[in-house]
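2024-03-11 09:14:02 INFO worker-7 job=invfold-0412 stage=load source=structure_tokens
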């Protein structure tokens, strides 16, 4: 559902049905559809992929569909700050791609006020993105 804003109506219906049955719902968003984010019914936990801390790195990492991708991203973060439900920022760090602007991540976290921040390193999976390799996996020093 990441690339299709029309799918949010289907998601809303499915999440409502899950909750009627007492089943938890977890949704991950790429923060590119602010109008749909605003109208989305609450889920058990709403994750937002924070793939970069600035527009240049987000463009390189995500290859967004929209020219106004950065404003859409920021609008979604602002909406999340006032969503009134449990939210998580999921940062996937890729060495040599999106780890240079740590203060930028801190500003996004202050702005969006998520309940949790999940920080993980990229997982090398082989040939899906040949420009990435084991050298891009962050390691603890």
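2024-03-11 09:14:09 INFO worker-7 stage=emit residues=141
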């Amino acid at each position: 559902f990441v690339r299709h804003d029309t799918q949010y109506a289907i998601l809303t219906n499915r999440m409502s049905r899950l909750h009627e049955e007492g089943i938890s719902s977890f949704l991950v968003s790429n923060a590119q559809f602010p109008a749909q984010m605003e109208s989305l019914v609450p889920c058990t936990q709403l994750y937002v992929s924070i793939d970069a801390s600035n527009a240049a790195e987000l463009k390189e990492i995500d290859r967004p569909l929209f020219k106004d991708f950065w404003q859409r991203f920021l609008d979604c973060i602002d909406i999340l700050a006032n969503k009134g439900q449990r939210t998580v920022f999921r940062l996937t760090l890729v060495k040599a791609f999106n780890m240079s602007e740590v203060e930028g991540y801190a500003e996004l976290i202050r702005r969006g006020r998520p309940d949790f921040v999940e920080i993980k390193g990229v997982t090398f999976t082989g040939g899906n993105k040949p420009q990435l390799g084991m050298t891009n996996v962050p390691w603890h020093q």
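2024-03-11 09:14:09 INFO worker-7 stage=report msg="The mean pLDDT is 84."
2024-03-11 09:14:10 INFO worker-7 job finished
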